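To: structure desk
From: M.T.
Subject: fold request, one chain
Message: Could you run this one when you get a chance? Sequence is below, nothing fancy, just the single chain.
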Amino acid sequence: MISYRLAKTTEVGELKSLLWKYGPNEWNYLTEEGVDAELQLVESGRAHAAVAIYQNQIVGLAILISGVDAPSYIEKYARVAESSFIGDVVVSKEHSGMGIASQLLRECKHKAKSLNSKSVLIERHEENLASAGMMKNAGFTIYETFHDPDKRSSGTQNSVVLGCMLGN
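Reply: Done. Structure tokens follow.
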């Protein structure tokens, strides 16, 4: 049985290992600087990582970042002081296809609401069908699709920004 909780700051090393083991693929944009910056936010308490646990092992994660610390382009879609951004999301290969990623996104939405965020944003490669499915299942809708060759080197080279509004 899978359980969900927020990661402890002492687990950042484990999160980084999981992310680098299962995150890289033709659709994901991962850089050492970006991953390190995101995990430093978690370590400092300025971001939160929702984790999926199976038999006392972290098998999935999703990182929730405040709008203030999120990539600057999100200001086009929401007021940064009232929003959150989900950065990297990854699930181990052995546990993929079980709805874990969608649940991690829902866990992030719940945490964002508790932090008084009014919306949550996320992005993906246009052709990343696994990400598209998990985001749709978690209630995200497409805000914009745009050509993004500096970040996307495969396929259409398009990024998709999605979001959802959080109820009161």
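Reply (cont.): The radius of gyration is 15 Å. Let me know if you need anything else for the meeting.
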